[in-house]
């Protein structure tokens, strides 16, 4: 790792400790090995796509590859780093290594200028290497103007497209390039590199503090190094966990464990107080949600696969505590928590008051036990003995549709209804057309009204939480069915029969009592 500045004054850690060899690009050994072997065997292609999340080393790898191709001792899989070309490439001043910000140079005119420059030979190196950062921002018409040049470029030109969104690149570009997918950097690798930097900077750092900085980086080495730079400036010569928490605001694992203990106990007050404390310390509610999502995901993975699967990176003692807490939830509850929090995180971007949206989400989070899956609802509605249910009221039971034809059975959704349907049937059809078959089957079992003035859906209490969780999809379907935005109200009713067949049986025998839908205790 380099340890000198490239300009007068202070140079940030993320730049000073930027990888300068293939081996220093953390976590991307598969890419480094392939590129080095291609150079050894003289099988270097003319165009590459480097894709991965931010801060994982895409641009650094592109620069190292350019040095390896143009080094005075090369092409070599191990550039010397001391020749004039290597040093100029490291400093970003080599005229034959052209880095282009595709976010601001993405038009047809920009591509025409690039094509014009490609015709000329390198000034002093073997190859002209073009590195297009954020390549997915190039317009479709600009890519079309570039296709012929990309397919048959001059022998002295190499292209490297770096992007975080490869799906936005046209197939015609993919077919002309070799693609390398960069992996997300593990927390352990980030912490190891941060430790090396602290040793070189002669800064004392607690392991817990480095682990906190690594978590805050969320898989990005560059983000973690930027946070480390900030933390060193705040703490001086000794980096402590408390100082990092005060500066970065990431919730300690201990705090997250306590929050989810309160969630398990349905204790809303302490959970809302944790959000209040985070906001009071200057953190955005979206950051608070990020911490909850990450913790809920860890619990879900541990509950589903166990700690032996190695899906959660934590110290052994922390892993034991996480596994113990995960055992107090069901997989369905944790999956619902991750889904709920992730959906709220997306909505926070457009919310006029993000804190209110976050508070509503925490209210729902403490009701995880009420968010049952469709399969669980089937067992409750049909009185399956596989799980204890509350005793049914005295009197004859309503008819139950066999599992093969139950409205909740795993059978193909019926064909969409005719376009002339109105009311709840129209909403059900709109849901099926959008691929939401489970929701459509629930609406089929509901009562209510739907018209220009609004939509009212009445369902048993046991189904209301499920509809509340999916309110956004219901509102969207109602808008498509009604042709405009309408209000949506979901009500609980104790007089709705378990299945269409039950309703028919009740109509045929009026003296029979309808089923009282009282949720099982503790559910």
Feature tags:
single chain, about 525 residues, alpha/beta, 5-stranded parallel β-sheet, 3-stranded mixed β-sheet, 23 helices, 10 strands, about 50% helix, about 10% strand, globular, disordered N terminus
Topology:
Blueprint (H helix, E strand, L loop, with lengths): L12 H4 L12 H12 L6 E5 L6 H13 L13 H8 L5 E5 L6 H11 L9 E6 L6 H12 L5 E7 L7 H4 L3 E4 L5 H15 L2 E2 L1 H11 L3 H15 L2 E2 L1 H8 L4 H12 L3 H13 L4 H21 L10 H11 L4 H18 L5 H12 L8 H9 L40 H11 L3 H8 L2 E5 L2 E6 L1 H9 L1 H12 L5 E5 L7 H9 L15
Parallel strand pairs: 1-4, 1-5, 2-3, 3-4, 6-7, 9-10
Antiparallel strand pairs: 8-9
Model description:
The structure is a single chain. With 523 residues, the protein is an alpha/beta fold. It has 23 helices and ten strands. It has helices at residues 13-16, 29-40, 58-70, 84-91, 108-118, 140-151, 171-174, 187-201, 207-217, 221-235, 241-248, 253-264, 268-280, 285-305, 316-326, 331-348, 354-365, 374-382, 423-433, 437-444, 461-469, 471-482, 500-508; strands at residues 47-51, 97-101, 128-133, 157-163, 178-181, 204-205, 238-239, 447-451, 454-459, 488-492. It has a five-stranded parallel sheet with strand order 2-3-4-1-5, covered by helices on one side. The chain has a three-stranded mixed sheet with strand order 8-9-10. Helix 12 (253-264) packs antiparallel against helix 13. The longest helix has 21 residues, at 285-305. The radius of gyration is 29 Å and the shape is globular.
């Amino acid at each position: 790792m380099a340890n000198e500045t490239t300009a007068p004054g202070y140079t940030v850690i993320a730049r000073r400790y930027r990888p300068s060899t293939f081996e220093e690009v953390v976590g991307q050994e598969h890419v480094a090995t392939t590129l080095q072997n291609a150079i050894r065997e003289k099988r270097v292609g003319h165009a590459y796509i480097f894709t991965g999340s931010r801060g994982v080393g895409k641009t650094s790898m592109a620069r190292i590859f350019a040095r390896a191709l143009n080094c005075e001792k090369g092409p070599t899989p191990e550039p010397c780093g001391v020749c004039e070309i290597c040093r100029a490439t490291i400093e970003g001043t080599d005229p034959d290594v052209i880095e282009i910000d595709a976010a601001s140079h993405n038009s047809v005119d920009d591509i025409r200028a690039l094509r014009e420059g490609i015709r000329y030979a390198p000034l002093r190196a073997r190859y002209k290497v073009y590195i297009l950062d954020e390549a997915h921002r190039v317009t479709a018409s600009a890519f079309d103007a570039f296709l012929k040049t990309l397919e048959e470029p001059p022998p002295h030109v190499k292209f490297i497209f770096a992007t975080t969104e490869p799906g936005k690149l046209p197939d015609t570009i993919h077919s002309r390039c070799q693609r390398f997918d960069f992996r997300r950097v593990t927390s352990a690798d980030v912490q190891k590199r941060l430790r090396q930097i602290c040793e070189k900077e002669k800064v004392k750092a607690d392991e817990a503090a480095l682990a906190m900085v690594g978590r805050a980086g969320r898989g990005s080495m560059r983000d973690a190094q930027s946070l480390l730079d900030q933390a060193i400036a705040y703490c001086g010569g000794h980096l402590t966990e408390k100082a990092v928490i005060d500066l970065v605001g990431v919730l300690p694992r201990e705090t997250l464990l306590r929050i989810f203990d309160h969630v398990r106990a349905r204790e809303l007050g302490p959970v809302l107080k944790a959000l209040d404390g985070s906001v009071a310390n200057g953190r955005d509610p979206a950051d608070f949600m990020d911490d909850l999502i990450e913790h809920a995901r860890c619990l879900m993975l541990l509950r589903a696969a166990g700690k032996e699967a190695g899906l959660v990176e934590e110290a052994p003692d922390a892993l034991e505590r996480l596994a113990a807490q995960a055992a107090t939830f069901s997989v369905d509850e944790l999956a619902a928590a991750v889904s709920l929090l992730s959906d709220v995180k997306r909505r926070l971007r457009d919310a006029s008051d993000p804190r209110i949206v976050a508070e509503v989400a925490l209210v729902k989070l403490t009701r995880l036990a009420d968010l049952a899956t469709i399969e669980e609802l089937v067992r409750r509605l049909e009185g399956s003995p596989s799980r204890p249910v509350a005793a049914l009221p005295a009197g004859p039971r309503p008819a139950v549709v066999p599992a093969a034809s139950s409205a909740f059975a795993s059978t193909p959704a019926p064909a969409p209804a005719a376009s002339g349907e109105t009311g709840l049937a129209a909403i059900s059809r709109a849901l099926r057309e959008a691929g939401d078959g489970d929701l459509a089957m629930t609406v089929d079992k509901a009562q209510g009204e739907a018209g220009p003035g609004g939509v009212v859906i009445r369902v048993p209490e046991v189904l209301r939480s499920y509809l509340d969780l999916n309110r956004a999809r219901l509102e969207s379907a109602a808008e498509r069915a009604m042709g405009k935005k309408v209000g949506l109200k979901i009500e609980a009713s104790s007089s709705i029969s378990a299945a269409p067949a039950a309703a028919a049986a009740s109509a045929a025998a009026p003296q029979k009592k309808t089923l009282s839908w009282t949720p099982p205790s503790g559910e």
